[in-house]
Amino acid sequence: MSTLRDNWRVIFLVVAILLSTFALFSPTMGAQSASEGNSATNLQFGLQLDGGTRIRAPLVGVTAEDVEFEGDSERVVERQVAAQIAGADAADVIARTGAESNTVEVTIENVTTDDLSAALDAAGYGHGEVRDGVTATTREETVRVLQSKINEAGLSGGTVQQVTTATSEHFILVEVPNRDQSDVVDLVGERGTVQIDIYHPTGTDNGSRVYETREAVLTQADFTSIGTAQESQTGSGAFVPVSVRDEPASEFQTAVQDTGLAQPGGTRCTYMEDGGENTTEGCLLLVVNGDVVNAFGMSGGLADTMRAGEWADAPSFQLQTRNTSEAQDIAINLRAGALPARLDLSGEDSGTSSYISPSQGESFKFDSLITGIIAVLAVAGVVFIRYGKPQVALPMIVTGLSEVYILLGFAAAIGYPLDLSVIAGFIAVIGTGVDDLIIIADEVMAEGSVTSRKVFQSRFRRAFWVIGAAAATTIIAMSPLAVLSLGDLQGFAIFTILGVIVGVLVTRPAYGDILRLLLTEDR
Asked: Which residue ranges does the record assign to the Protein export membrane protein SecD/SecF C-terminal domain (predicted)?
C-alpha cells in the first residue's frame, strides 16, 4: 500500500497511456477508421495530411445598421425592402431586432450599399450606416448550416469555421478531407432553399388556358420528419418522404383545394417550364435555389384526403424527384436548412478554393513522421550528452514521448483531425516537455548526490515551481490563438496548451517519482 501511495503519479501516467491506447486502437472509437477501415488507428487527418478541398470565402451581402422598423414586424420589413430591390424576394432579406440596433441585410449578389439605402428610404424606414458584409449572427448561422450540410452528406472530418483577418475582414473557412473540389463547391456554394409552388389554371384566354403560380405554399421551415432518399417502386425517379407541421399543413391543404389541384382521381402534370403550351390540370413544383427541379401531379388517394379535409390530421407526402442524386441533395438541404447567405466564390474580393491530392497528403504524412523522428533523436542526443547517465536521460525521453502519445489518444477520442499545425504543436510539446524535465534533473542533481527522499522532494518542489510558472506563461500566451478564429494557428495553440497541461499534471510529476526511485535508496 505504501508503494502504491508513494508512486501514484507513475500509476496515473500508466493509466493515461492505457486510455490513450484504447482511444487510438479500439474499434468502438474513431468514426472514420471504424466506418472506412482505411487506417490502423482511430486518428483522423485534416486535408493537409489526407488530401482534400479547402474553401475560404466571404459571405455575399450588405447590411444597414440602426434601422427604424416603425412598429413593423421583421417579416413585414423583409417583404417591404425586398419589393424595392430588383430580383430580390423576402428570402433574400434578413431583418433582425437587436437590443442595441435593428439591422437589415440583403444577401444576393450585385446589390450595393447605395441600393440597400435607396430601398430602405423607398420603404419608409430610417437607417444609419450601410456597409458591405453581413452581421455576426448571420455568419454564425452560416457556419452551423454548412457544418450540418457536411455532416448530412457524410463527409467525414469536414470542418467549418469563421476566420478573421488582421484587417477585420471575415471569411468562412471550409475544409473537407479526401473530397474532390467540385463536389465540395457544389455542396456549399448554393444556399439550399427548398420550397413547393402550385402551378394551376385560372381560366381561358382566346380558347387557351391561363396559368398562375402560387409560390412558397410550403417552405423549408415547414417540413419535419424528413426521410431518406428512396428510389420509386415504379423504377422511374426517386422521392423523399416528409411530414409537415400542423399550421402550414392546414394552409397547404386549403391552397390545394382553392387551386383545384385536389380533383377526383388526382391530377396529371404536364408542366413545361420553357414556355411551351401547357395542357396540365395543375402541378406541384419542387423549387430548389429558385429553379424548378421537378413537377408532379397528385395521386387520387392524396387528392381525396385533401378534398375531405383529412390530410392535415396526418400531414405527410412524398417530394418526387427525377433521380436518387436529386433526392439525396434535397434531403440534405431540408435537414441542414437554407444558408442565410451564400459564399462569395466570384468577383474581385471573392474567396478561393484549393485542392490537395491524396498522394500529396501522403507525402506530407511521411515528411511529418520523419520530422518528428529527427526531433526526438536530436533531443535524445542532447540529453545523453548533457548527463551521460542512462538512468536520468532514458526516462526523460520516454516520459517526454508519452506526452505526445497521450495527446494523440486525446485527438483520436474526440475525432480532432490532425494537420500540419497540430504536428507543429506536437514538436513544440516535445521541446518544452524535455526542457522542463531537464530543469527537474538539473535542480535535483545540482547540489550533489541525493541521499534521501526528503532531500529529493525539497529539490523537486523548487524545480516544479519554475515549471509551473513557465507553463502558466505558455498557456496565457497561447490562449488568444486557441480562442480566436485564426485558421491553422488555432490547432497549434490548442495542442501546445494541452501538452503543457498534460505535462504539469501527469508526466512531470511521474518523471519526478521515476527519478526518485532511480537516484535514492530511500524509496
From this structure: 353-506
**3-state SS, residue 449:** coil
Candidates 376, 280, 271, 291; CA nearest to 333 is 291
Please state the three-class secondary structure of 180-237 as a single string.
CHHHHHHHHHCCCCEEEEEEEEEEEECCEEEEEEEEEEEEHHHEECCCCCEECCCCCC
Contact yes or no for 57/344 (Cβ under 8 A): yes
Report residue 150 as a C-alpha cell. 457536411
Give dist(CA 359, CA 380) in Å, integer: 32
> Please, which pLDDT band fits residue 35 given cuts at 50, 70 and 90?
very low
pLDDT band at 447, cuts 50/70/90?
A: low
Phi/psi at 46 (5° precision): -75, 175
Residue type, 44: Q
Helix axes 8-25, 508-519, angle to 10 degrees: 130
Indicate the pTM of the whole model.
Answer: 0.66
Q: Is the pLDDT confidence value at 33 over 60?
A: no
